[in-house]
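Predict the assembly for these two chains.
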Amino acid sequence: MTSKTVLHAKHIAAGAKMVDFYGWEMPINYGSQIEEHNAVRTQSGMFDVSHMTIVDVQGTDAKAFLRRLVTNDVAKLTVKGKALYAGMLNEQGGVIDDLIIYFFSDTDYRLVVNSATREKDLSWMEQQAAGFDLSIIERPEFGMIAVQGPEAKAQVAKLLTPTQLEAIADMKPFFGVQADDLFIATTGYTGEEGYEIIIPENATEDFWQKLLDLGVAPCGLGARDTLRLEAGMNLYGLDMDETISPLAANMAWTISWEPSDRDFIGRDVLAAQNAAGEQPKLVGLILTEKGVLRSHQVVVTEFGNGEITSGTFSPTLGHSVALARVPRNVNIGDVVEVEMRKKLVKVTVTKPSFVRNGKKVF
Amino acid sequence: MSNTPSELKYVATHEWVRVEGNGIVTIGITEHAQELLGDMVFVELPEVGDQIATGDDVAVAESVKAASDIYAPITGEVVEINEELEDAPELVNSDAFGDGWLFKMKVEDESELDALLDAEAYATSIED
């Protein structure tokens, strides 16, 4: 039994090739994944992300609960609408999921988590909420559209009312605001400017159609993956999972160690890992000759073997790039080898970020 | 269902063969194969002069999704490769049976052609 988003009929009408994505029937592409990718890098594209799970955490203890639940510290959030990226860990310090938390007040937060991990996320949150005075409320009554690209904000602006435009004027990156019936956030998963917009279900199709009429290109999960990978953003299940420490997944920056008495789940394990300095690390790999790096290929280094977590052909760069978990002693700039189709191929190690705002960044 | 031109011969591994006369054949991958693979990003071809035998993996079609081996449909010598694919691998997507051809061969034994599938047999094979 697969679920369908409120935009399902729109995808079919646009000739999308549909695939099963963790129980959701989603578009993989509408013809050419590379053309969709390029539309986002050079103009604007839109993604149906209605399958993502929205969870509101409300109540007297909401702040205390989230300070315990995730690696980053929601106490840093003081401006209404500000968002925070964080990891939700198990007691062993493995990543249950990565998520975005929007702050409205100390008693009112909105979380957006992965749909693939929805059930375990919700049950983990319910389990951890014991003893806290709060409500965890899933919000399935919304659609969600990500509009991304250098022209994305201007395109969306054409569909907003003066009141809504005022609400989002001068909004900095990683903020969200409720503007009439739309929740508009300056977040995304592409490395381009744009919005992620949460829309009441009954208005989602109309909003999608209006963006389509403006020439915003519908983009599928294929382009979403190549865009996020170029931007060096992790994909849960590939680049990290419950067996992987955030220290080994380029998520150390999401860990707020201060104040030292904040007892977030997994803290003791992470502190010990940090002191030992033995966790592998997530780096970027670049292959400039022919061929495409793929998940699970072995990375051979003088310090031992690593593994490619996500690899793809980068349409923006014209060659392959990958994220790989390698021994910590491997340095940026090193040349290491990847076992591809029974041959060892030389690749260069970079920081795990390749393209931002349409430009190469390594 | 994908388009399968009736004048071509096919292999169950999704290569097509066009008989050009004088023992020369052109080889490519089918519309169905390119649809399965998605956007092509690299095509690795054999070299002119290579002697290849039926079933050898002689080329690689690498798409955004996967790398896929291409097998020699017949025994013979490679006499020409489609150099356009070096800069425009997407021709395999846009015109699999035409401009997206891969290479040409001089066939060693033309009777081998009789063993290839016709369009109807290939179309049946991909329906499963």
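Chain A touches chain B through 13 residues (CB under 8 Å). Residues 246-360 of chain A form a domain with the Elongation Factor Tu (Ef-tu); domain 3 fold (CATH 2.40.30.110).
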